[in-house]
Amino acid sequence: METKQIPPLHKLQVERTRATINRAFLSVHSLMLLALLYYRASWFFFFLTSHSHTWTFTLTWFLLLTSELTLSFIWLLGAAYRWRPVSRTAFPERLSDDSQLPGIDVFICTADPAKEPPLDVMNTVVSAMALDYPAEKLWVYLSDDGGADITLYAMRKAFSFAMVWLPFCRKYGVRTRSPNAYFSKEIEEDDGLIRRGEFCSEREKMKFMYEAFKEQVERAKEMDLTGDDSLSKKAKADRAPLIEVIGENELDMMGVHDKMPHLVYVRREKRPTHPHNFKAGALNVALRVSSLLSNGSHILVLDCDMYSNDPTSAKTAMCFHLDPTLSPSLAFVQFPQMFHNINPNDIYCGQLREVFKVWWYGCDGLNGPVLSGTGFYIKREALYGTAPGLDLPKDLIQRRQWFGHSNELLRTLRSDYKCNIVENGLQSNGLLQEAHLLASCNYEKGTKWGKQVGFYYDSVVEDYMTGFRLHCRGWNSIYYDPPRPQFLGNAPNTLNDCLVQFKRWSTGLLEITFSRYCPLIYGIMSGHSILHTMCISYWAFMPFYSIFALCYATVPQLSLLNGISLYPKVSDPWFALFATVFISGSFQHLFEVLHTGGSFRTWWNELRIWMIRSVSSNFFGCLEIAARLIGVRRVDFGLTCKVTEEDQVVRYAKGVFDFQGAGIILVPVVTGSILNMVALIGGVGRVIVEGSYSELMVQLFLTLLITISSYPIIEGFAIRRDAGRVPPLITFFSIICTMVLLSLGLIVFTV
Ligand SMILES: O=c1ccn([C@@H]2O[C@H](COP(=O)(O)OP(=O)(O)O[C@H]3O[C@H](CO)[C@@H](O)[C@H](O)[C@H]3O)[C@@H](O)[C@H]2O)c(=O)[nH]1
Ligand SMILES: [Mn+2]
Fold it and tell me: What is the value of pTM for the model shown?
């Protein structure tokens, strides 16, 4: 008998040519690096043991050796990303039977109505409600860590708006379902196909309704802002829990429950005496509350600024989750983070090209990427603390130790994940009351929440930590980067915001590096593949780029000023080695940038921002973690601001660096620029006078490269007078730091 062939839901392609080229490059480059380290180390030991040289040589060569070793080590870890890149295609249109689709709970997090405008948050909420998925299986939860009444108010309004917006989108096949994004485009790509008279008038009507909704929210916000500021601070730090299912009565009255997804507002309890564990804490509350109400077997997590840009993402993710060969060990499907506000210049490299166009493709060819905070569909089961295929503890006492004492919650722990809402509504069965208990501060006490169950608390990069631990437990993940961005967010567009964001990541990553979960050790100990462990560990060691960058931005320059050569002469064969390593490394980067749709300018911008981040964000991350390790301070989340002033937007659009608001984090950057500029002038003078160009060639080149790439910074403190220039106080501090460094150089090299 002939069996009907079911077409596959997705396809995997290993990029063999790229893998071969990468591997060849990696082998040659590693050999060259080894030789270079040999050169450095042998001279270092020579200086160390010979008595004819001063300790200055030993010290400088030690610094260079350390920084080159660090760089090579991080490079080697990153090499694993290039080992087996793959790409995927999914065919959501082949999922014909809606009845087989599992329930999805969407968690959206917001934390501060001042930094995250409620209207934008509501756009994300509405776009999530408008996912192309059976409405009765879709529940959207908004976790409001700001505890703001304005957010709750805006949500009620958003629900009413969604009642007209969703039918409109469905009827006309609108793909951009965040109303703000939709109406700010003149024509949607697909509009052309359906431009009938009726559509046009409906669109106008919708636009009018959106404007009315927008005005309601903005007016309420204005009223809220003129209110008592201390109240909003209190709401953030000290308040009771509040959970509300929005629009329940309206739906009851209209009898249209099957047409609209549910929308739930979740405000967890916060007390100043209780650590709230930032986003991970918020997500775990959402996890518990949702288990009680909808108990969807899959969860989509979104940051409040990450709207859904393509309604098909849910079904696309299901192409992987429902594949019986993948499913048993598949924890999550990660979509790339993409941004709607990136300017073509992208001076801050906010699109994170390397992560989402190179690294995650490489990870996907191994066991899959770690979580990227937002835009992933994860299995609820994977978050409940077991390895794939293993059951939860049978014993009730043990279950309580894991999940807490709520019997209602324990009852939801079953493999068939069923929605808990019974026909006669929410209030009657006390579920909401129980939900409030689950959102209270004390609930997690003595349980495994944040340690083994749910999202992990040990780090402010909860996404990385959780993803990594899931992998260690045997779960896999998938990365899918379809042609149309599934989600679009808001990238920070001032230098300060970018640096602060990276500093948080550095600190968070180092929290893990210095814990007992150090990925390199813990990964290998838990039997994880070496290559994948290397990919994951790359992040954990990335903050140490600062060691290399700080050293390379100062030591060769100070030596240059004092006429001391640290690299081989031009005529020395070892010179060729240094030059080749530099050139081949740069070419590989350039090749990758061009291959992933970037340009020459992208390449240059990435090089520059890497230098900037390394000496500032990574360095301060290291300092902060050192302070934490000795118990001086606690790590904070440092929310990125999603509102930018108009002149800042203009500067960003023009591709002009914006230093406004930057604090001490900028000092190493400015100091580095001044020092390199001074060293370049002094170095050129010395070479002309002494003719020592051959010995100092590498140092001159390095100083020139840094000075050229620092041009926007030099311009920022020396030439510009607008509000976006380097704050004068920072310039002042940096000049002092430069002078200290110069004097130090003088002392070290002349004594
Ligand atoms: O106490 C907190 C702090 C933050 N958030 C939310 O977390 C999300 C991310 O915060 P944001 O300030 O936008 O940080 P980003 O640096 O843009 O976030 C990146 O890095 C985070 C980890 O540091 C990840 O969680 C994010 O998904 C990832 O996009 C936002 O929706 C916030 O509302 C909370 O819910 N509670
Ligand atoms: Mn963000």
Answer: 0.95
